[in-house]
Amino acid sequence: MTTAAKISVTLLDDDDFPTSFQVLSKSFGHDAPLIDIYFPNHDTPSGQARGSARLAAWKQGSEDSTFLKAVLKSGQDGQERIIGLAVWTYMKEPPPADIEKVENVEEVWPDVDDREYMARLWRDYVVPRTKSIEDSAGKGIFVLELLAIHPEYQRLGAGAALVKWGTKAADDKGVKAVVEGTPVARRLYEQCGLVAEIEEMRFDVGEKFVGRRKPNLIFLSREPKS
């Protein structure tokens, strides 16, 4: 049996969130500015507790989002380890441009400047997926909203398995699959059939935040296959 064959993709259980959020934090480290600002202090115990709670609330509050885990089964002791996390959302309506409509902003970002910066990023972040939804003639799109693989278990096939789950779901509905991906993950997405629509997403944060790190994201999409 190959290593890839030992990896399975299943639905994430509610009690998986603490472990899954740790995977998310380790996966991105501090190399992804959007993750750093969206999940404040995600590498600390308190930040991970808050992040886990937000993911759990998201799962409970969205019927259109599917939370997945990639599990690696050890051949020696038969133990299963969560090594990856993905969230796919079927969107038929454009997401709100105002982050206050989707997050408790004062609680998540008590610092006023952090709150304003996140709001500005979010406003630009949702533009490409909004256009894809508007261009879908009412069919909607499948959005890969989150993908994280534990750094010690990358290149084993978990990322591809999580991505392909969503592209198959998109094919089944006859809709486009999209993702706002990092350059590091671009090769994986392209191997799964997604192609770049926007080579570098635009984030206009204004002079006030010129010194802050901005996300470096590519908008990729995949047309459905019959």
Automatic annotation (TrEMBL):
UniProt GO MF annotations: acyltransferase activity, transferring groups other than amino-acyl groups
Gene3D superfamilies: 3.40.630.30
Transmembrane segments: none
Residue ranges constituting the N-acetyltransferase domain according to the UniProt record: 89-215
One family name in Pfam for this protein: Acetyltransf_1
Domain of life: Eukaryota
Protein name: N-acetyltransferase domain-containing protein
